[in-house]
Design a protein that fits this description.
Helices cover 31% and strands 16% of the residues. It has 467 residues and is of the alpha/beta class. It has two domains: 196 residues, Aconitase, domain 3, CATH 3.30.499.10; 157 residues, Aconitase, domain 3. It has a five-stranded parallel β-sheet with strand order 5-4-3-6-7. Strand 4, helix 3 and strand 5 form a beta-alpha-beta unit. It is globular and about 55 Å long. The protein starts with 5 loop residues before the first helix and ends in an 11-residue tail after the last helix.
């Protein structure tokens, strides 16, 4: 019998029932909820006269449309205030743990899960948010679900789900100086396109992936869905176990040692076969940036926007439309383009390591006058660490201001919107038309590249400024 992939091992261990020729009934270990996709789900179970089946397996936090300044004041926006209040009300009614805005554990749902040790290897995890794939960095099967599925999980702790195909992406070798996890994933998506992962669950492997910190791995898995994949995952190893140690909800003492023994089994068998396998050389990856309106439209920051003859005929109309929206020309130099906004944050790059990277780069430098910069920690704990480590001080000396935690300018559901026609370099995950505000233009990049742009006021290869 052929060996099993890591994905198969976790999935198969959680199948409660299978519908012949149809989806599986999959048990869910952890359900994360926020204020946007949960109100209708709670209304749904209440209309059916049922309660939450396993409230202890659900954790809630508001993040998408919360303000990132004056969080101690009532939320001004009516819809945001209603949704946040509704989440509080629903959690109280159903006995669900909620980390509200004033709670020291609050923050972006995909930042607090790993940080608190709620996310653990071998789990199945879902949330009404596509970037739930972030948690796959721990060797868990984690994916985003729709509102009706949120209701299904609240009611049964299970979900009906067709089993995706399996893909492995190997990145071997050593990353060059100035090349980060964000560059790896932007490079991969540029290679396979924004639909290249459709129908698959991706396992990322290879020496370059293993060399990443947990924060870096989360960034890679976070954006796996931007290739169209159902999710991404990385096998747990010593880096994972070290990160888990001492986390609030991670196993303790002998329980932790026992958990590690179990987690060590979570790896793909040598003879397992994937439905698709791709290989990349880490040496070929450079700092990346997007130029268009989907995450697959990315190039090395030191190169040019492609010419029309380099684009497949089937993608040409999309390419032309994207350039028109962005105000760019085919064949344009990327370097030197003037930028208006820089956003560092989101569930992709709002962790302490991301803020450290920005602080290290801007130390002793000053923000360019033409740049409006929003630096937004992913959680209260990240904010606290930034204050304790002197990061806040370094940023302020360079002319930046740290905002309060939240999804912020990632998705224009709160006050942090990029104004129409303005160009932003963003460390978030999506660059669709209007994603960061109506008419806003977004270029996705790593925190390091964003920091270099912030101090020069234009697109630059960060490696030219590395000390």
């Amino acid at each position: 019998m052929a060996g099993k992939t890591l994905f198969d091992k976790i999935w198969d261990a959680h199948v409660v029932d299978e519908i012949k020729g149809g989806p599986s009934v999959l048990y869910i270990d952890k359900h994360l909820i926020h204020e946007v996709t949960s109100p209708q789900a709670f209304a749904g179970i209440e209309n059916r006269g049922i309660s939450v089946f396993r409230p202890q397996n659900t954790v809630a936090t508001p993040d998408h449309n919360v303000p990132t300044i004056d969080q101690h004041l009532p939320i001004k926006d009516q819809l945001s205030r209603f949704q946040v209040n509704k989440l509080t009300e629903n959690c109280e009614k159903h006995g669900i743990t909620l980390y509200g805005l004033s709670h020291p554990f609050s923050g972006i749902v995909h930042v607090i899960g790993p940080q608190l040790g709620i996310t653990q290897p071998g789990m199945t995890m879902v949330c009404g948010d596509s970037h739930t794939s972030t948690h796959g960095a721990f060797g868990s099967v984690a994916f985003g679900i729709g509102t009706s599925e949120v209701e299904m999980v609240l009611a049964t702790q299970c979900i009906l789900q067709p089993k995706p195909k399996r893909m492995r992406i190997n990145v071997e070798g050593t990353l060059s100086k100035g090349v980060t996890a964000k560059d790896i994933i932007l490079y991969i998506i540029a290679k396979i396109t924004a639909s290249g992962g459709t129908g698959y669950f991706i396992e990322f492997a290879g020496s370059a992936i293993r060399s990443l910190s947990m924060e870096g791995r989360m960034t890679v898995c976070n954006m796996s869905i931007e290739s169209g994949a159902r999710g991404g995952m990385i096998a747990p190893d010593e880096t994972t176990f070290e990160y888990m140690k001492g986390r609030e909800f991670a196993p303790k003492g002998e329980g932790f040692d026992a958990a590690i023994e179990k987690w060590k089994q979570l790896k793909t068998d040598e003879d397992a076969v994937f439905d698709a396998e791709l290989n990349y050389d880490a040496a070929d990856i450079a700092p990346m940036i997007t130029y268009g309106t989907n995450p697959g439209m990315g190039v090395k920051v030191s190169s040019n926007i492609p010419n029309e003859n380099e684009i497949e005929q089937s993608n040409l109309a999309t390419f032309q439309k994207a350039l028109k929206y962005m105000g760019f020309e085919a064949g344009d130099d990327i370097i030197g383009k003037e930028v208006d906004y820089v956003f560092v944050g989101s569930c992709t790059n709002g962790r302490i390591e991301d803020l450290r990277e920005v602080a290290n780069f801007v130390k002793g430098r000053k923000k360019a006058d033409n740049i409006t910069a929003w630096i937004v920690p992913g959680s209260k704990q990240v904010e606290k660490q930034a204050n304790e480590e002197g990061i806040t001080e370094i940023l302020e000396a360079a002319g930046f201001k740290l905002r309060q935690p939240g999804c912020s300018a990632c998705l224009a559901m709160n006050d942090d919107k990029i104004p129409e026609g303005k160009l932003a370099v963003s460390t978030s995950n999506r660059n669709f038309e209007g994603r960061q505000g109506p008419g806003a233009k977004t270029m996705l990049a790593s925190p390091l590249t964003a920091a270099a742009v912030a101090v020069t006021g234009k697109i630059i290869d960060p490696r030219t400024l590395l000390k």
